[in-house]
Each structure stands twice: as C-alpha cells, then as structure tokens.
Amino acid sequence: MARSITQTGTTHYEVQKKRRAAKVEQSRQHRTAVIRTSDVVLEDNPSRRMRRGIYLGADGPHPTHVLDAAVHEVSPGITSSIHRHSWDAIMWVIEGTGWTEIDGQRVEWRPWDTVYLPRWAWHRSGTDGDKPARYLTWSVEPMYETFGLAVLEDAGDEPFAQLPPAPRSTAPDDAGPDSYGRRMRRLAAAYSPATAHRLITKWEDVNPRVTKRGARSMFLVDETIGYRTSGLTAVMHELGPGLWQAKHRHGGEAYLYVVSGRGHTEIDGVDHPWSAGDLVVVNHWCWHQHINDDTENSARLIRVHNVDALYDLMQILLDPMQLIEEEPDLADAPDLTGYRWPDPMAGRPAF
After folding, report:
1. Would residue 250 count as lying in a domain?
2. What is the residue range of 91's domain?
3. Judging by beta carbons within 10 Å of its beta carbon (0-12, 13-18, 19+), is residue 14 exposed, middle or buried?
4. What is the pLDDT of residues 191-234, one digit of tens each?
5. Given a cut of 70, is residue 303 above it in pLDDT?
6. Among 69, 260, 312, 344, which is least packed by CB within 10 angstroms?
7. Is 12 exposed, middle or buried, given 0-12, 13-18 or 19+ CB atoms closer than 10 A?
C-alpha cells in the first residue's frame, strides 16, 4: 500500500493570497481624492491631431482599475483620425462647438452637451468654428483591460463605409434546439447597431429634478432616457448656495467633474476642497458628502460611475450586503423649502 507523503512549501493558498494583497496595495497607493485641473497636462497626440490630458488612468500618474477620465482639445478646423475600441465612453463638452461622427452618423454638439460613444463604434470628432473645442471623457477601459478585453483600432482618415463592422454573434439557420443553439440565437438576437440607441443629450433637453438628498439632478446618460451602455451612467448634480448633498457611501467608485462653483467633499471625515475643472474621486465604501462653500451661487458637478453593470453583479455576489448606504431617513439632507433654483441655462458658455 502506497504511503501518502505530506509536502510542505508554498501552495496555491499562499501564492493567491500574496498576489491579491499586492493588487489591493497597488490600488491603495494610487488613491487620491481630488485631481486639480492645473495638474492635468495636455499633450499633443499627432496621430489623432488633437491634444489629450489624463485625469485618471494608466496613461497618466494615477492608474485605475474600473474607470478613467481624460480631457481632449481639438483645434479650429481640425478633424481627428477615426478609431474604435471595445469599451464604451461618455463625452461631455466643456467649451467650443463641433461634431462627432459615430458609425457614420454625425451628431452636432455645443457646450454642456453629452455624447455617448458605444463600444466598437467607429468615431471621429471635428470643429468647424474658429475656436478650439474641449471635452471630457470617462470610460471603462481599465475594467476591460483587467478582463483582457481592451482593443483599440485607429484607421486614420478612412471613410466609415470602408471600415469593418463591429464583431457580433451569429446564429446559422440550422442552429438546433439544444442549449448551444439556444445560446447562439439569444446572443445574436441581442445585437443592435451602435446608432440604434440614443447618442446625445442636448443641454437644453435636460430635465432637472430635486432629489431627497438635497441636490437638483439632471440625467445626462442613463437607460431611463434611452441609452444602452455597458453600465456607465452620468448625472449632473447642482448644489444650492451654501448647501450640501446628504451623506452616503457605495460599493463602487464615482468620479465627479466640477463644472462650476467651489466647495469641498468630506470623505471619511476629511475635507477635500475643489473648484471648477477639478475631478473629485470617491473610492468605494467611503462615507462622503459634497458641500457648496459659495453662499451666493450654486455649484454643479457631473457624477459618473459604472453602476448598471459592475454594481449589479457585485450586489448579487455580495447579497445581502447593501452597496448603497445613507443616513437614516436622510436626516442630514438640507431643507430646500422655498429655495428657488437658477435657470439651468445660466452659466453655460457662449457658442
């Protein structure tokens, strides 16, 4: 009868534990609460014929694992190269006028308009005016890179009609009734072209609503207003003069771009001041609230996170743990009784 031999040494348990701890520590080392607009360096991108600066992402000083954020500038009369990527993105116009062609469909944009760039959609942007255009983008490229699914293709100045279509599932006519055949038909039926869903939110079409947390909010990108994203959502929050949003925390990170105003965000008891052009970074499980320090003017921030995909999966995996927590009955929300909000068009840059 063969003897069983006990072997000592490094096992899968130690290897995996060490690797996972290293990833968490790496993430902690790069955490930051506010990226100052003055610290974002615009670099020339000759191949794309535009300039680009990194707020957060692997191509800048603050690598991330789920979302990234960048600012782009297009000079007057310039059209960028056409490219596509396997991830989707949200584009918000800071200043200037121009257009973006998405799988052959052209959308015109002005300051404070929001454009959605679907995954695998060929797109390029340009300006027709005499002033530069600048816009911000958020994407889930870091998450796709983590999964090994990040693909980027640049096609220079090729016309859209000559470019390959997006990859898609196929289902032959003879796909059987078995489980494999059912999967093929299900995935093929789920396909829809990039231009079949909403691509732009014009600022004049936003619908402001005051929330129980104490802010006036406006959907920019969300499935409830016709978008179909991989989970990206964007909302503009407006804080009244000297007011704040109720304290809360959630299981995923959120990025908030300061459109206008000055204030601070309290994160786990520490105040982090911000002003226009800065990016506020709220990491997961941090109790936080945003406060407007200006007692005369409102402050506006655009909040982006990946809630409708990654959060949904996390909620299922971690159930019954709640991924969004607030103070009981929102006890710390401000009293907005009688407060008159400014015209949503106020403060929008001229075009």
Report:
1. yes
2. 35-160
3. exposed
4. 888 889 999 999 999 999 999 999 999 999 999 999 999 899 99
5. yes
6. 312
7. exposed
